[in-house]
Design a protein that fits this description.
The chain is built from seven helices and no strands. The protein has about 210 residues and is mostly helical. The model is unreliable at about 175-200 (pLDDT under 50).
Length: about 210
């Protein structure tokens, strides 16, 4: 239930930014990055299914909000999945020389899909008629790899923050007693008075028998 609740919150925040990208119509990439960061939150707790669930829900509902599958294609095709890929690779501590070619290959696949199928490059569709695809691929790959470095930096900073905010009590652990709660102090037990009275009576009887 905890993972599901966290996934729901992440999906809601991601959907908010995806919706803003549709409504505002500028700073689209910034909103996509923010949405990607939102779906990374469950990954900081190693809740991978929750992260993918948050992405799936935000992507599906993003289509509903936009009313056009291509309007939010940038998030669905690239920024959402890349955020998950980056988070998983950071958790697994994948070496940069392994991660870099994988990410570059995915970036080029996503750009090709956006350019040839969705007819958008997330910035200005009119650029597509003025610049050859290979230029977009080269510049886009470099730019998106830089953005990925920013995502890695933010993810590293986010892990301790989320850990502190969403810290869970281990299962089976008894709640810690409050410092000012003396209810478990044996000296303050409600039976203390009776116990000491009984001890004093025994001492008195012993003294009487000795004399």
């Amino acid at each position: 239930m905890y993972q599901l609740a966290l996934a729901g919150i992440a999906a809601a925040v991601a959907l908010l930014f995806v919706g803003l990208s549709v409504i505002v119509r500028f700073s689209t990439i910034a909103f996509y990055i923010a949405a990607g960061i939102a779906v990374m939150v469950p990954l900081t707790k190693r809740y991978y299914l929750a992260g993918f669930f948050a992405y799936g829900v935000s992507a599906a509902l993003g289509f509903v909000i936009a009313g056009d599958i291509y309007t939010v294609a940038g998030y669905v095709v690239y920024f959402g999945p890349m955020a998950l890929i980056t988070g998983v690779m950071c958790n697994l501590k994948v070496k940069w020389f392994v991660a870099l070619p994988i990410k570059a290959a995915y970036i080029n696949s996503a750009l090709a899909l956006l350019y040839f199928v969705c007819h958008t490059i997330m910035i200005d569709a009119s650029i597509m008629d003025k610049i050859d695809y290979w230029v977009i691929a080269v510049v886009g790959t470099a730019a998106l790899l830089l953005i990925d470095l920013v995502l890695q930096f933010l993810y590293a900073k986010m892990i301790p923050v989320v850990e502190k905010v969403l810290r869970q009590k281990p299962k089976g652990e008894a709640p810690a007693a409050e410092d000012d709660d003396d209810s478990n102090d044996p000296e303050d037990s409600p039976f203390d008075e009776c116990r000491w009275d009984y001890i004093e009576d025994k001492k008195t009887d012993a003294d009487v028998e000795e004399h």
